[in-house]
Write a structure and sequence with these properties.
The chain is of the alpha/beta class. The chain has a single domain, classed as 3-Layer(aba) Sandwich (Rossmann fold). The chain is built from 7 helices and 4 strands, in the order αβααβαβαβαα. It has a 4-stranded parallel sheet, sandwiched between helices. α5 links the parallel β3 and β4. α1 packs across α3 and α2 crosses α6. The model has no long low-confidence stretch (mean pLDDT about 80).
Length: about 160
């Protein structure tokens, strides 16, 4: 039996890859990039994120096809999942954590209890725009390079269990 093994570099460790993707998408290197992965349906509550960020929002990358999601994890600084109780888990949080991204998760999302306090993740009260904005701003100013590096290590350890 022949084994086929391939080494795939984790792009998150490669700052150059992050900045190359951002350049392709027109995102400045110095920008704080927040990622939302999900359908624009009521249970995902995407408008909560828009409302929380609208004072800070300069530009948005817009819709990305699923084939671009792995690159989005590389380009982003954190993931926000504002979903309500109908979100039974929130797999994008696992994916983001495996990519080393800190996450801001609604307390009603299924994964919040198990993953919300791990690594550099944070939980906010679903529908509380002011609290989401506060968490968003706190994440932005935590010394993001150290924040992401520490989150990557902790999230990676958890995802390998």
């Amino acid at each position: 039996m022949q084994r086929h093994t391939r080494w795939i570099t984790n792009a998150l460790r490669d700052r150059q890859a992050k900045f190359e993707i951002r350049k392709q998408w027109g995102i400045p290197e110095s920008a704080f990039c927040v990622l939302f992965c999900g359908k624009f349906i009521p249970k995902k509550r995407p408008l909560d994120l828009v409302e929380a960020a609208k004072l800070l929002l300069r530009d948005a990358a817009g819709f990305l096809n699923q084939t671009e999601i792995s690159r989005a994890y590389v380009a982003a600084d954190c993931l926000v999942l504002p979903s309500d109780y109908r979100e039974t888990w929130g797999l994008v949080v696992n994916e983001a954590m495996a990519s080393g991204l800190p996450c801001i998760i609604s307390d009603q999302c299924g994964c919040a209890e198990d993953l919300g306090s791990l690594g550099m993740n944070e939980v906010f009260s679903c529908g509380n725009i002011s609290e989401l904005r506060t968490r968003f701003l706190a994440s932005q100013w935590k010394g993001i390079s150290d924040y992401v590096r520490l989150s990557f290590l902790r999230s990676r350890q958890l995802s390998q269990r």
